[in-house]
Amino acid sequence: MEGTPVTVASVSEVGPGTVALELETPADFDAQPGQFVLLRAEPDDEVISRHYTLSSSSVGETFELTVGIDPDGDLSPWLADLEGGETVAIDGPFGRSTYDGEVDVVAVAGGPGIGAAVAIAEAAHEAGHDAVVIYQDDAPAHEARLEALEDAGATVAVLDEDADEDLADAVATHREDGQLYAFGFDDFVTFVADAVDDAGGDPDEALIENFG
């Protein structure tokens, strides 16, 4: 199996159908919030690879990936059943939608994009900056971390999946409160970009990670 071998430290449930995969950080792995890795594993002796975005604000001794579980998937159910101590492999990090700790942030997430959004918001607070998280999902994940961010002074809006008007309003209201990030599938990030444009902003200035 190609890539850098890493040990699974733990797997924990962080929401309906969602787990956090904590991995031991390999030597020379220098990743920023917003980046992603290519993870390889061998369920049933067949190598399967998927991209996952980091959901931890740092990569000290360990780092975290948030994994949405597809019951019919080839890899995510296997990852969710791990108990720690197993070995997977990673390539990366990849991606340019990174946060370097220099500015306030507005992190907009749809579905699995919440991992990256909460990591960026936490990194901003750790660096002494303000953060806004706008999250659209009918089955929210990372609620404890979102509550902790809100308690620390961040603005957090969790919206229903069909609340597109509320999403557009939230983007319009907060788009100038910091560097805007958007993480999610194609329809979602396209909607966010259009909402920025409709509100008089420049969507090209947003840092958008399209999950396909």
Would you mind describing this structure in some detail?
The chain is built from five helices and eleven strands, in the order E-E-E-E-E-H-E-E-H-E-H-E-H-E-H-E. Helices cover 24% and strands 34% of the residues. It is α/β, with parallel strands linked by helices. The longest helix is centred in the middle third of the chain and has 13 residues, at 114-126. The mean pLDDT is 96. The protein has helices at residues 76-80, 114-126, 143-151, 164-174, 186-198; strands at residues 4-15, 18-24, 36-41, 48-53, 62-68, 87-94, 105-110, 131-136, 155-159, 179-184, 207-210. The strands form two sheets. The chain has a six-stranded antiparallel beta sheet with strand order 4-3-6-1-2-5. A five-stranded parallel beta sheet has the order 9-8-7-10-11, sandwiched between helices.
